[in-house]
Amino acid sequence: MAAAKRFNAEGGVSGKPIEVINIDNKGDPGLTNRGVAYLIRQGVIAILSAPTGWSTFAPIHRVNGSKTLFISIGSRRRIERSGPYIFRAALPDEIATDELIQYASKDLGYENYALVASSDYSYSLDISSLFKKAVLKHGGTISVETDTYDTYLGKRNLTTVVDAIKGGADSLQAVIFTGGAEEAALFVEALKSAGVHLPIIGSEDLFVADYLRVGRDMKGSLVYASYSPLSHSPVMERFRKDMDEKNPDRFSALAYDSFMVLAEAIKAAGSTASARVRDALIHSEGYDGVTGRIHFTADGTLVKHPFIYGIKADAAGENFVLLKH
Question: At 316, is the pLDDT very low, low, confident or very high (cuts 50, 70, 90)?
Answer without folding.
Answer: low
